[in-house]
Structure prediction request, 235 residues.
Amino acid sequence: MKNDGFDRRAFLKSAVAGSAAAVTVTLPLAAPAQQGAAAPAVTNSGYAYLNPDEAAFVEALVDHMVPADALSPKGTDIGLNTYIDRALAGGWGKGDRLYMQGPWKQGTSSQGYQLPLTPADLYRTGIAAANAFCVKTFGKSFDKITESQRQEFLLNLQAGKVTFENGPPARVFFTTLYQNVMEGMFADPMYGGNRNKAGWKLIGFPGVIAVHYQNVEKFRDRKYTVDPLSISDMS
Prediction:
């Protein structure tokens, strides 16, 4: 994405600061709401959780946040949509190992995630609400609006200027989307994203660090260029 808080340089800086090799979200997500949206059948080939409308939203999102340019391929070519889908279909999306009881009250920003939704439920209800907002505002769902309209919507979502009529808190939804895109960009490729180690090559990250420990002192204060190694490369 371009401009303001979404330019690629700022995106990468925040991602690396958070942890270049992050694999899972650390927000304390909670249990699914009893009134959560029903799960539509997954009929699109290649996705384990996302239904066609949700997949279209996620694909448009990751390609907008990470467009193809001289630095890297676009988000879907890197596999960011695949990373998100696998995460939602797995234990993280189902809320495994998370506190699953109430009470559900609005907390302070320092208390983290405070919704009665698993990550998968958050995506399902959030995407439906985001598409409804885009249809009402722009006349089309998120995947069908123009690039400039997507930019406007996402920047307003980030800034807390969007309110969903029927859905989760919009800014919480955006925070999770953004976190997952960063994870998919820099996690080990075995999780579906960072295809061909594009994210690691972009920032010069060598991958499985234990393999390179003997070079820490040897290359101190010198440029260290190496082909990154993933977990699968070691097996």
Q: What stands out?
A: The first helix runs from residue 8 to 19. The chain has nine helices and no strands. The CA atoms of residues 102 and 116 lie 8 Å apart.
